[in-house]
Design a protein that fits this description.
By secondary structure, the protein is an all-alpha fold. About 70% of the residues lie in helices and about 0% in strands. It is elongated and about 65 Å long.
Length: about 150
């Protein structure tokens, strides 16, 4: 039973981590990285603009930075990209998943980052496991008394 609960905890933490990594930007919305999280890379690769370090991606990031310095907000900048470059500049959820997967599988992370990620996943899974076990024990003790 406890192994099943730990596996459930591990699954919950992994799913939450992946959803957060793929769909939530780690940068504030009014920054270049926050805005580029929602825009496709203009290169021929499937990456998200925030992860791109090629010259074509850097040009678009510079455009975002210039518009931010001119006082534009996130919606105005995304609207500008949509009007100027069309719907290809905007990411769909599937494109975002493919872009993040491409970044991970092409060796975009050092081994130390991957090891730290795995360690954190295991720690948080253990914490969630202990919480679930505690709640189940508490509920079980309540049933015995009644």
């Amino acid at each position: 039973m406890k192994i099943k609960i730990f596996i459930l905890s591990l699954g919950i933490i992994i799913v939450f981590s992946l959803i957060k990594y793929v769909f939530w930007s780690s940068a504030a919305a009014d920054t270049v990285m926050g805005i580029s999280h929602n825009i496709a890379c203009p290169c021929e690769c499937p990456m998200v603009l925030e992860d791109c370090h090629m010259s074509c991606g850097m040009e678009w990031k510079d455009m975002i930075g210039k518009r931010l310095m001119a006082g534009a907000n996130k919606d105005e900048i995304e609207g500008y990209f949509f009007k100027r470059f069309g719907k290809e500049s905007m990411l769909t959820p599937l494109q975002r998943i493919r872009g993040k997967w491409y970044q991970i599988t092409r060796g975009g992370y050092p081994i130390s980052d991957i090891a730290l990620f795995i360690a954190l996943i295991l720690v948080w899974s253990g914490v969630l496991h202990l919480i679930i076990i505690g709640v189940l024990d508490y509920l079980e003790k309540g049933k015995i008394k009644t």
